[in-house]
What we know:
Layout (H helix, E strand, L loop, with lengths): L1 E5 L2 E5 L11 H19 L24
Antiparallel strand pairs: 1-2
Amino acid sequence: MKATIEANGVSVQSTVKCTGQTGVEMEALTAVSVSLLTIYDMCKAVDKTMILEDIHLVSKTKTDVNI
């Protein structure tokens, strides 16, 4: 998880890896969403106009992992 303060808000990035056969897109999106909701909860007393937006999957790669 990586959170960066920017000029107009906060950017949060999540990287997820697994060894199973299933994708983990939902886990990555959930991690970012929960992080942003936590920031919202901590800052709502200061700014009630905050907006959570543009939560999206940037990339997905599928590679075979030999264990």
